[in-house]
């Protein structure tokens, strides 16, 4: 009886401690988001550069090379407030990017580089940004994670305009935003369309639907079983078992999936066909698509039945997410963001330059693939020799633990405690 009382007391203490740690984490995250240290550092560096430049001018003893380096150090940014007297226009930009080297899209993660930080660097460099980020009424449609790519991301904000009186459909004489920005952006980010938008538009909340696709090789997968299981996602469901729980910021896990399909791509590697899972919905939870794909892979490999989708969508039966690994992030792509009445445009010159750039990028990646293919071919004889040394022994396959028998994630405990503190 004494041991049982101790166990109950320890469990209650652990729950209270978890609640305290979660509250401290939220407090520190809020402080980090509101931190302005980097702005003060930029101001100090700018003052330091100004003083160094003034000293070099007065002394006239330094070489021209040193002076150029000092001037170059002043590049970190410019005071966007001096642009407020310029005409401005509220526009939407359609953006594509290859996310492998970025720490996600949003700059709030305090990690560099991000796609958003690179875009704002280009906006400052080209003097298109009017005011700071808040004054520009900036909004983004999708907040893609680390490593995820996009060919249809949309952002909206005020940009400098050549037109004194802007009409929504007036594009004659306007700045070629696509051409100007693409000259300043890194090779793995490109703008390929812009559109004037009404002031009430918000790229996140005005979006009617988002479509993702996930690329994968179809070898040794039961594609029919995967497609049959994937169609169970269509409709409005509680997807808490198909996402990374964020109990502090998300309280409604119901999302609507409008379409699901698996189709072949026009790419092969030897005899292996590349396929794409396409999922469209009004909005998605954190890591939702990657969790959905991970369970579909377990079904395609024969480890799980398609009925496991029904079980995981039944949150009364399975209130907490079982522990399983998400699908890798690199093959995930945000394909499109749907808006009512937006028609993105791009000048013929900018589109031609974009095609040339993408063609060159494709060739570069084909060259890299060829190098890896040659390395693979050189490894094949070693692999044959190794088989003979193994004397025909077969490695034991790793066992699979059914999802329904796995322990649930700790994050589920956090959500229960936070939603019902009296249970502690």
Can you describe this structure?
The model is unreliable at 45-49, 55-75, 412-416 and 418-424 (pLDDT under 50). With 424 residues, the protein is α+β, with helices and mostly antiparallel strands. It folds into three domains: 2-72; 83-196, Alpha-Beta Plaits, CATH 3.30.70.580; 209-341 and 401-423, 2-Layer Sandwich (Alpha-Beta Plaits). Helix content is 38%, strand content 18%. It contains ten helices and nine strands. Helix 1 (2-33) crosses helix 10.
Quick summary of this structure?
The protein has about 425 residues and is an alpha+beta fold. The protein has ten helices and nine strands.
Keywords:
Alpha-Beta Plaits; disordered C terminus; nine-stranded mixed β-sheet; 10 helices; 38% helix; 3 domains; 424 residues; alpha+beta; 9 strands
Helix content bin: 25-40%
Could you say what the CATH topology of the largest domain is called?
Alpha-Beta Plaits
**Beta-strand content estimate:** 15-25%
CATH architecture of the largest domain, by name, is 2-Layer Sandwich
Shape descriptor reads globular
Largest sheet: 9 strands, mixed
Secondary structure layout:
Blueprint: H1 2-33, H2 37-59, H3 64-72, E1 88-97, H4 115-125, E2 139-140, E3 149-160, H5 177-184, E4 189-196, E5 209-217, H6 223-230, E6 235-238, E7 254-269, E8 272-281, H7 288-300, H8 307-313, E9 332-338, H9 348-389, H10 410-419
Parallel strand pairs: 3-9
Antiparallel strand pairs: 1-3, 1-4, 2-3, 5-8, 5-9, 6-7, 7-8
């Amino acid at each position: 009886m004494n041991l049982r009382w101790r166990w109950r007391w320890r469990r209650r203490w652990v729950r209270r401690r978890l609640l305290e740690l979660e509250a401290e984490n939220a407090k520190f995250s809020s402080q980090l988001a509101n931190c302005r240290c980097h702005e003060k550092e930029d101001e100090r560096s700018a003052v330091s550069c100004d003083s160094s430049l003034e000293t070099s001018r007065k002394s006239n003893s330094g070489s021209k090379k040193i002076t150029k380096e000092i001037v170059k150090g002043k590049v970190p940014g410019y005071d966007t407030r001096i642009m407020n007297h310029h005409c401005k226009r509220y526009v939407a930009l359609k953006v594509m990017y290859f996310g492998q080297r970025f720490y996600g899209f949003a700059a709030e993660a305090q990690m560099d580089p991000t796609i958003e930080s690179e875009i704002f660097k280009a906006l400052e460099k080209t003097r298109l940004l009017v005011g700071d980020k808040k004054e520009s009424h900036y909004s983004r449609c999708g907040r893609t994670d680390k490593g995820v790519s996009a060919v249809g991301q949309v952002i909206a904000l005020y940009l400098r305009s050549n037109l004194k009186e802007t009409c929504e459909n007036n594009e004659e004489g306007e700045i070629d935003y696509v051409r100007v920005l693409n000259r300043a952006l890194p090779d793995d980010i490109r703008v390929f369309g812009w559109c004037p938008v009404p002031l009430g538009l918000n790229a996140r909340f005005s979006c009617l639907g988002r479509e993702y696709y996930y690329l994968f090789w179809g070898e040794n997968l039961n594609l029919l079983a995967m497609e049959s299981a994937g169609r169970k996602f269509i409709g409005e469901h509680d997807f808490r078992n198909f996402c990374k729980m964020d109990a502090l910021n998300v309280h409604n896990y119901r999302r609507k999936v409008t379409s699901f399909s698996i189709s072949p791509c026009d790419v092969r590697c030897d005899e292996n066909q590349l396929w794409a899972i396409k999922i469209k919905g009004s909005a998605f939870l954190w890591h939702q698509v990657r969790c959905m794909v991970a369970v579909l892979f377990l079904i395609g490999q024969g480890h799980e039945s398609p009925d496991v989708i029904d079980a995981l969508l039944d949150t009364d039966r399975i209130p907490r997410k079982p522990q399983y690994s998400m699908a890798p992030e690199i093959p995930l792509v945000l394909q499109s963001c749907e808006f009512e009445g937006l028609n993105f445009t791009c000048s013929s010159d900018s589109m031609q330059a974009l095609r040339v750039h993408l063609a060159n990028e494709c060739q570069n990646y084909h060259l890299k693939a060829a190098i890896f293919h040659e390395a693979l071919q050189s490894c094949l004889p070693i692999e044959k020799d190794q088989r003979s040394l193994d004397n025909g022994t077969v490695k034991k396959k790793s066992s699979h633990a059914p999802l329904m028998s796995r322990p649930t994630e700790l994050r589920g405990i956090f959500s229960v405690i936070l939603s019902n503190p009296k249970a502690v």
